[in-house]
């Protein structure tokens, strides 16, 4: 029977946790202040510690962070899960930098908390010397870094990647914000691939492309006969993502009624298929993304505040490419290298003038637009050296790439225009169109569905 030490000054919280953990088969000890912590660790010898970060009125978490340091100085291998009702990404990242294993927000979800404890106890046993053949194999075979595919050298991007690495090993929900084309799905996939759920599925759904009347069927599934066109049983995205990660893209586009249904499932961690009365438990980690300002939408009454709290335990913001111009050339080189291999043009290169021109652009379509420009120019360039003039012509004019988005056109309208033009150039062939736009087939299908271009 594993021993768990709870350190929390709220006696009601301690009692609730104690009852939950004892029912789950753990031996539990509760203490209520930092002064009792080290003696309790020495006498009780816990396998894991649940540590509240706030023992003071100001709720800064400093008292808990100090105690975390003392605990790990005494026993560096001790698994510690942080808990607080005042969760911030800075506090979570700081705690995990100091050696905490996970971060759980209050009020907690019982299922999520028990899963986190089980995972950390399993990891703790491995670090203590109990290794499986799988972990032994992993120790001898280098594992590719999922974040290596995110290209850029800017301080802003390095900070985002560092934060994403820290939260990947937790069960915390993550909200990724940023303009269209900044790479939100890449970050989400890297978090999944670095997490304890990496062997489970990564299931992405573009909520902006799901009609309101089909929301429940898409997310929760349906039984045959649940509605007119339901000719057979269908598994929903929650079921398909079981044991893995569910990526809710463009969550800011979700209609008000659908927000209520999603919130209920996230709160209760169970759902029902349409046409079925049996509740099914969920076992997914939620990563959400949006190009909208959800805080402003909450103020305007178009997005539920309680849903925002559910999905926004950890917030990562990807800045647009114009705010990190140092990433433009590394990205351009990466895309050009891919084009060299794909189109069998190994001698392709950017002239110094072309590099200078690229650095001056604002790229309203962000990384996706840069990739599209480099690949299109690589295909059409008659010479091995790509010039600034060729890039200008492919961008739509002699000025800058900002001319790509005429005054008055939104990013969404620009995306629709790009997809329509690419489909026309490729005679509607999805694979070729996706390649030209720098998208996967699945991502292109989602955008076609979202914009009604099918």
TrEMBL record:
Modified residue annotations for 4-aspartylphosphate: 52
Q: What's the name of the protein?
A: DNA-binding NtrC family response regulator
Q: Does the keyword ATP-binding apply?
A: yes
Question: GO molecular function terms here?
Answer: ATP binding; sequence-specific DNA binding
Which Pfam families does the UniProt record give?
A: AAA_lid_14, HTH_8, Response_reg, Sigma54_activat
Task: Give the start-end ranges of region Disordered.
Answer: 121-145
Q: In the UniProt record, does the keyword Methyltransferase occur?
A: no
Q: Which UniProt keywords apply?
A: ATP-binding, DNA-binding, Nucleotide-binding, Phosphoprotein, Transcription, Transcription regulation
Per the UniProt record, the source organism is Neolewinella xylanilytica
